Amino acid sequence: MATVTASYFVSHIHGGAASVDSKSNLAQIGLRTQTVTHNGLRSVNKVDMLQLKSNVKAAAKKSRSMVKKTEKEGAPAKIVCGSGMNLVFISAEVGPWSKTGGLGDVLGGLPPAMAANGHRAMTVSPRYDQYRDAWDTSVVVEIQVGDRVEKVRFFHCYKRGVDRVFVDHPVFLEKVWGKTKSKIYGPTAGTDYQDNQLRFSLLCQAALLAPLVLNLNSSKYFSGPYGEDVIFIANDWHTALLPCYLKTMYQSRGIYMHAKVAFCIHNIAYQGRFAFSDFDLLNLPDEYKSSFDFVDGYAKPVKGRKINWMKAGILESDRVVTVSPYYAQELVSGVEKGVELDNIIRKTGITGIVNGMDTQEWNPATDKYIDCNYDITTVMDAKPLLKEALQAAVGLPVDRSIPVIGFIGRLEEQKGSDILVAAVSKFIGRNVQIIILGTGKKSFEQQIEQLEVSYPDKARGVAKFNVPLAHMITAGADFMLVPSRFEPCGLIQLHAMRYGTIPICASTGGLVDTVKEGYTGFHMGDFNVECATVDPADVLKIAAAVNRALAVYGTLALKEMIKNCMSQDLSWKGPAKNWELLLLSLGVAGSEPGIEGEEIAPLAKENVATP
Ligand SMILES: Nc1ncnc2c1ncn2[C@@H]1O[C@H](COP(=O)(O)OP(=O)(O)O[C@H]2O[C@H](CO)[C@@H](O)[C@H](O)[C@H]2O)[C@@H](O)[C@H]1O
Ligand SMILES: OC[C@H]1O[C@H](O[C@H]2[C@H](O)[C@@H](O)[C@@H](O[C@H]3[C@H](O)[C@@H](O)[C@@H](O)O[C@@H]3CO)O[C@@H]2CO)[C@H](O)[C@@H](O)[C@@H]1O
């Protein structure tokens, strides 16, 4: 087994990066031409490691003291001045730069909300495309991945108060060349890249380097490297190696001694299960094998004993979080909903914090994808017009008196599009139209496309990833169906409610926490989580709930529900406060509660440029 754990160095600095003053600042922390290597690759250079440690500390201290001086010079009291925590979010998706679904949305929205609360926030994600707004920092590091040493560059931009860091390497850019859809994880939905473990090992290692080697001077309140006193927020299985590498590569050498890791589960269905022998690819000491060790009854990707990345992420992190309180309960309820990690999560404990939504991208008053903008006072006039525009756009008969039901989501078993397709015949005879938008499994895409062949005047199935159409459906439909077998949080119902579109949802996960029966939506009860078959009882649940919803269409009761939906605050503001409390409880050195800043907050609220 490889004993080499990691190698990195800042090899070459060209200068001239837009938002990172690399040349002078790296010199300031002593990283300009410094080579820092760990055992194996080159000789261990402990002096350099210690130097790195003290230089980063000094630079971080300096940035905070500069800030304090500004405060003394009479800046308004409510300004964020070096208060708060240093937060480093790591994820395979960060919207709007990369997104296959809700994971990208959360990484797009939560970090700016934390910045608006006075914290310093960075995201680290792969550079899948030539993002127009992210610049080469010229900082290059070497990382040991499997048995190879790879050169990795960091790109960067500063948006809405957040340092967006992109890890540049051909395993990301050459494979994907785009922002969305399943190419992030594999060539087609359901197929993974063979080298995903190496790709995400590289991401985790790069994320551990970013706070040390990037000297970011994007904001006048925070400058210099983030330093060692950081909290890493690792998201889903792709980032599960981060807490392991933190211990084996850094803490064992006296670096990042006070850093902590919160591991957030967005979907327990994807755990990163691989052949047990693949452990050797991960560059981790043998003593970590037990954290990954996992036996299941499935033959995929190999029969029998496996490694399970998510299991290790849960066990090796300091705190486990998920995206709604009800999903947290479901995860520990048993094998079925905890997907065989329930026993592990019962040991570690888990906290559920419901997601917020991006209220800028999803704002009916400013939405650029819809013909007519509206708010709670004009919704009843605008919606019929938007419905007609939607019907025309998808080629359905244009008639504002027909109730329209929408569905948007990844076409995987989770989302229950197969159950919905089976239920359509049970209600389509009524005065109703249905529009389904989604991509994913080929067989599910064919099912939704077949609907419009069967019901040409009543149904449309669009197998595309289409953001404008997603907005048009959210605005123009009367009801949004969310028939998920399981749903950690769900953003579709949040978007729908903000647009006055009433959710009809399965009673699972975050749908339970966010939709109130008869007040902001309709609940269908929980569905069978067995994914291989469509349970006839669930088909009937959909049909019954649709009938209930259609019964209130055009009544005052529906108008009331629309107002109830639209008057809620569904933004990241509340969730970000809950995240703050949770992260503060980790007790990282220098962490303070954030203060909503007059300068950082507007930055965090400013619109994101399209990458
Ligand atoms: N064909 C298409 N065209 C355009 N846009 C499309 C689309 N298909 C999906 N989307 C968009 O993708 C997002 C889906 O987000 P969700 O949170 O509802 O589900 P997802 O399962 O991906 O996320 C997972 O992570 C999130 C975040 O934690 C949890 O809320 C969720 O329960 C969990 O399953 C929405 O922004 C939606 O508009
Ligand atoms: O934001 C949407 C979701 O994105 C992530 O899910 C991806 C998952 O992590 C990947 O592993 C992959 O899943 C495939 C899986 O690996 C494969 O064996 C097969 O079962 O098909 C799966 C689907 O293609 O792609 C997922 C996205 O489609 C994130 O982990 C989730 O939390 C998000 O819901």
From TrEMBL:
Designated name of the protein: Starch synthase, chloroplastic/amyloplastic
GO molecular-function terms, A-Z: alpha-1,4-glucan glucosyltransferase (UDP-glucose donor) activity
Domain of life: Eukaryota
HAMAP family reported for this sequence: Glycogen_synth
PANTHER family: GRANULE-BOUND STARCH SYNTHASE 1, CHLOROPLASTIC/AMYLOPLASTIC, GRANULE-BOUND STARCH SYNTHASE 1, CHLOROPLASTIC_AMYLOPLASTIC
GO term, biological process aspect, one: starch biosynthetic process
Chief place where the protein resides: plastid
This protein's record includes keyword Chloroplast: yes
Bilayer-crossing regions: none
Metabolic or biological pathway: Glycan biosynthesis; starch biosynthesis
UniProt-listed SUPFAM superfamilies: UDP-Glycosyltransferase/glycogen phosphorylase
Subcellular location: Plastid, Chloroplast; Plastid, Amyloplast
Chain ranges of the Glycosyl transferase family domain: 403-530
